[in-house]
Amino acid sequence: MAVTDEAIEKIKGMIVSGALRPGDRLPKESELAADLGLSRNSLREAVRALSLIRILDVRQGDGTYVTSLDPQLLLEALSFVVDFHRDDTVLEFLAVRRILEPAATAMAALRISEQQLGALEAQLDKLGDQPSVEELVACDLEFHRGIVQSAGNSVLCSLLDGLSGPTTRARIWRGLTQEDAVSGTLREHRAILAALRDRDTEAARSWATVHIASVEQWLRSTL
């Protein structure tokens, strides 16, 4: 094991064991290096690496702290990695969305508040019947994010947020090239919203599946 990897594992072990908790300040560099049997150099490299993935927060002049370890914060690293996807992996991202998002939408049917439902409806009303493709895709992202947030699972929300980026270009491409793609998307959004209003988990799940699968099927036919 590389020296830096060993240092990372040792700091990780302290956090997992509870020796360091969210919000705790790490001991002084010299003390921590001695306690862990590490060189100060390898410790510095480990701290730098763990700060990049939001495990540690290095505050100039104040010290290094364990972050809140909130799922949304930790999964920011996923979004960063996802940005390096290749075009030929978009179908794989859509397949993962098709597994996760219908489940989140079904959960939302039981938890979503009237206020949240009103906000979703206002989004669709503001969009109108003939939006541009870019306006529709931007609304699509916000619409689904609002639904997933109302499901009440921060890990699921962060995962889907990170996975939505790679499919944006495919959705714009579809809107520009497939006849009735815009009107079809609007109909599907209304159907999802109606299922949420009815607190119908299976209808919400089904419409979310149809919505994602339609993009996936179109993309398969064009590749």
TrEMBL record:
Keywords, alphabetical: DNA-binding, Transcription, Transcription regulation
Pfam families the record matches: FCD (PF07729), GntR (PF00392)
InterPro entries attached to this UniProt entry: GntR_C, TF_FadR/GntR_C, Tscrpt_reg_HTH_GntR, WH-like_DNA-bd_sf, WH_DNA-bd_sf
Keyword ATP-binding: no
Protein's UniProt keywords contain Translocase: no
Domain HTH gntR-type stretches: 1-69
CDD domains named among the record's database cross-references: WHTH_GntR (cd07377)
Entry protein name: FadR/GntR family transcriptional regulator
Organism from which the protein derives: Streptomyces vulcanius
Lineage of the species this protein comes from: Bacteria, Bacillati, Actinomycetota, Actinomycetes, Kitasatosporales
